[in-house]
Each structure stands twice: as structure tokens, then as C-alpha cells.
Design goal:
Layout lengths: L2 E2 L5 H14 L28 E5 L5 E8 L21 E2 L4 H13 L5 E5 L6 H18 L5 E5 L6 H10 L2 E3 L7 H7 L5 H17 L7 E8 L6 H14 L4 E6 L14 H19 L21 H8 L6 E2 L5 H4 L7 H11 L17 H4 L3 E3 L2 E2 L24 H4 L2 E4 L7 E6 L11
Parallel strand pairs: 1-4, 3-5, 5-6, 6-7, 7-8, 8-9, 10-11
Antiparallel strand pairs: 2-3, 11-12, 13-14
The protein binds iron/sulfur cluster.
Length: 441
């Protein structure tokens, strides 16, 4: 059993608890998959640089983030986690709020960090641990007048007033579902109740953010991919639902790493990493490209095709949609072309007003990937190339299906949007608001 150590200096604790943070899947944007830690900044031999990560923010931009756990003690036993109570994860320790706030401010004043990402194992109870995390953030804001970036993890099952306080203090909040439904979560995290401990808290948080009752701009979530035997369809259906109903800004996906791997090198095989990558692509199609969940392509075992990117898979099932006319089609239709993203589509629409595009090469300056658009586009009725996209010459692989029909219970209703995406409307039919669908319960 791992040993709890009290008599450590602040720096020794940082070494343990930032190192721990690399393996904590609760830290959604912390990429510690490889031994080298691909998110690390600068020279990893420098003690300071062992604790600080350059981190992409959900809405864009970067901060140099101190990613740390309040404590790596945990009473829970999630099967995918290195810190489960029954695991021997090495040395266990924890910060006092005053200690962590003072350490952070030392780095901040030295210009080494400009953000804090704070998560924790559950020491004693969720409420007690969250109280320490909130106190740390409160000290930073009130005692030290730190006005920079704080990301707080919402622990499962905390009190409503703690959620409210976290919203007042943090710029971002994350609450990780880890699995797409109650049944899946039960298999990997038996101590957490999907509806009561997670979805309910996510609802409170989302509502407070939506009403602008604090400084938190957005809420994110994460799924561990693989350990509960969930399908890609299971995950993406829940992702779509939390975007509609729980004011989630974006989702992260973390391919399962075997926590019993003694070298902690991840135990993540190539296919799992590719699956994680494809889930990110599907998620991006739904959030930024106007794709709907029913547009996503799955095989007959509800998996995303691994060897074809999701947009090309959709194109393969809809050859009649092409060619798309660069000078006449809507921005939404342009984004259905492989090789054209949201930025290049909006540039095309803006620039063609003055100067219609004539040749494929003209598109280069818009950022299109020309090697991928070939055969999918035309210019004012004139085909860009006599070539067909190579995939169109073949039948789609057996079992692929697109246009997933929403479940009956979601069918009645009207157009919906992803409210936290602000302005992106998705056309889709659904039933009453705020009911947890049966597949998710
Ligand atoms: S609650 Fe689960 S995932 Fe989070 S630290 Fe504890 S064992 Fe790990």
C-alpha cells in the first residue's frame, strides 16, 4: 500500500503531485502519455520545468500552467486510475491551501507560470477535498490578488454551494464523465454515481455559467476511451447530448492507459491512440463544421472507421453531394469538402465576392489542402479535375452506415443548438429539454 508522507518540503510535494498530475486522467489537457511527457515545456532536467506545462486553452491561446493535484490520496477505486485507494502508486501526499497558493505565487511573480490547473484525488470526502481546492483558489484571488487563469476540477458529488463558489473563482471548470452512461461508469468507477454525482453537478455548473453568475467562461468534460467496453457511438451520442443539455464547451478523450503498467509508459496501443484521434475529429466536426451526430459514420459494430477520417467517410457515403461549387455553395456545404475547414470556408465566401475563384491553385491562399479537395469541387459549374475522389470508385466498406437516425425519444421537437458553442446552430430533432435519455441513465 502506498505511504502518506507529511514531512516533505513544498518542492518535494510539487515533485510528487505534479508528477502525479501527469497520470491523473482527471486532468484533461495534461498529456503525460509518454515517459517524456509530450506537453512539457523547455528543458525537462530543470526542476522548475518539471512542474510547468504549456497548455492550449479550450477557446484558443496558450498559458504556462502549473498542473498539480491538491492530493494524490484517493478513497475511490476507479479501475483506469493510477491513484485508486488499492493501488501502490508510490508516495502519497497533499498540500495545505496556504502552502500551494504561496508556492504558485512564487512562480507567478518570477514570471514562470500564468495559470493554475488544480485537480485532486478524493481525500476523505469530495466535499472536504473540494473545500481545500476552493480555499486555494480563494487565497489566490483575495489574498494575492491573482487575476490570471485558474482551472478547477469539479469533484464528483460536491455540494451545490461549492459548485457556485468554484464558478466565482475559476476561469474554466471541468467535470469528467469518464464513461458515456451509468452502466459503463459502474464498470470502471463503482464509487461514482453517473446521474447524481456527475450529471447533476454538470447541470448546476452549466446553468450558472449560462447565466453568467461568476467568472467561469466554460465547462469541459473528458471520457476515458476503452476500459468500459463502450462503443464510439456510445461516446459520441453522449458527447452530442451534453453539448445540447449540459452547457459543455468541449470534450476530451483519453485512450486508456493501463495503470498497472509498472513502467507507467502508458500501455496504450496504436489503435487506441488512433481511435482517440478519430473521436477528436468527430467531435470537431460536430462543434465546428456543422455536422450533426446522425451524420457521423459508424460500422456495424458502432465503431468509427479507423482507417478513414470521418469527413471523408461521410463523403464516401454521399457521392451525390459533390462536386461542391467553390463560387456558389454555402459555407456549410464548403465545409463538407475534405481539405476545407471552417477558416478556409469563411475565407472562400468572403474573397469570392470580389474575385471568384477560377483554378484549384487559387485556393492555396485560403488554407485549403489541395491534395484532398481534388475531385470534390468545381468552379462556377466547371469541374476542377476530371478525376473522381479515389474512394468514390469503390463501394463503401461493408457495414458502414451514415445518417444515424436519432432514437425515437429524441425525434419529436425542433431545431437545437449547442448553446455553449455560442452561435453554432445544429439542425436536429429532439424531444423535451433536460430529460436524461434512457441510454444515458
Ligand atoms: S476519483 Fe477515481 S479517477 Fe479520480 S483520482 Fe480517485 S481513483 Fe482516480
Amino acid at each position: 500500500m502506498a505511504q502518506f508522507i507529511r514531512s516533505l518540503t513544498g518542492e518535494e510535494k510539487l515533485d510528487i503531485l505534479t508528477e502525479s498530475a501527469r497520470y491523473d486522467v482527471c486532468l484533461a489537457t495534461c498529456n503525460g502519455r509518454t515517459g517524456g511527457g509530450s506537453g512539457r515545456m523547455r528543458d525537462p532536467s530543470s526542476p522548475l520545468n518539471r512542474w510547468i506545462y504549456p497548455t492550449a486553452l479550450p477557446g484558443g491561446g496558450m498559458v504556462h500552467m502549473l498542473k498539480v493535484l491538491m492530493s494524490n490520496v484517493c478513497v475511490n477505486n476507479c479501475s483506469y486510475c493510477f491513484f485508486g485507494a488499492k493501488r501502490n502508486c508510490g508516495r502519497r501526499t497533499g498540500f495545505r491551501p496556504e502552502e500551494l497558493a504561496a508556492l504558485f505565487m512564487g512562480f507567478y511573480r518570477a514570471g514562470e507560470v500564468n495559470g493554475l490547473f488544480l485537480s485532486s484525488g478524493i481525500k476523505g470526502s469530495s466535499d472536504e477535498t473540494m473545500a481545500d481546492m476552493i480555499k486555494t483558489a480563494r487565497l489566490l484571488r483575495d489574498r494575492y490578488h491573482f487575476n490570471g487563469y485558474i482551472h478547477l476540477k469539479i469533484l464528483p458529488g460536491i455540494q451545490e454551494d461549492q459548485v457556485r463558489e468554484a464558478i466565482l473563482l475559476a476561469n474554466r471548470i471541468s467535470l469528467n464523465l469518464e464513461a458515456p452512461s451509468r452502466a459503463h461508469l459502474e464498470k470502471i468507477a463503482p464509487d461514482k454515481a453517473f446521474g447524481r454525482d456527475l450529471l447533476k453537478r454538470m447541470d448546476w455548473t452549466g446553468e450558472l455559467i449560462r447565466r453568467g453568475e461568476g467568472r467561469t467562461a466554460s465547462q469541459t468534460t473528458q471520457f476515458v476511451v476503452g476500459p468500459s467496453g463502450e462503443s464510439d457511438l456510445d461516446i459520441l451520442r453522449t458527447v452530442d447530448w451534453v453539448y445540447r443539455e449540459r452547457y459543455i464547451f468541449r470534450s476530451y478523450f483519453s485512450a486508456y492507459q493501463n495503470p498497472d503498467d509498472p513502467l507507467r509508459q502508458g500501455g496504450t496501443d496504436k489503435d487506441s491512440l488512433l481511435r482517440e484521434h478519430r473521436l477528436y475529429q468527430c467531435d470537431f466536426l460536430m462543434r465546428a463544421y456543422g455536422f450533426r451526430f446522425p451524420d457521423l459514420v459508424f460500422d456495424d459494430e458502432n465503431r468509427i472507421p479507423l482507417q478513414t477520417d470521418p469527413k471523408t467517410a461521410w463523403a464516401l457515403l454521399h457521392p451525390d453531394f459533390y462536386p461542391v461549387d467553390i463560387n456558389r455553395s454555402s459555407e456549410e456545404d464548403l465545409m463538407r469538402v475534405p481539405g476545407i475547414g471552417p477558416l478556409s470556408a469563411s475565407r472562400i465566401v468572403e474573397w469570392r465576392r470580389e474575385n471568384p475563384f477560377r483554378y484549384e491553385e487559387d485556393l492555396k491562399k485560403t488554407g485549403c489542402v489541395l491534395s484532398r479537395t481534388k475531385g470534390y469541387i468545381e468552379f462556377s459549374g466547371r469541374k476542377s479535375s476530371s478525376e473522381q475522389p479515389p474512394l468514390f470508385e469503390a463501394e463503401p466498406p461493408r457495414g458502414w452506415r451514415g445518417g444515424q437516425t436519432p432514437l425515437e425519444e429524441e425525434k419529436i421537437g425542433t431545431t437545437y443548438e449547442y448553446p455553449a458553442q455560442k452561435g453554432k446552430t445544429v439542425n436536429y430533432l429532439f424531444k423535451g429539454k433536460n430529460t436524461i435519455p434512457t441510454w444515458c441513465r
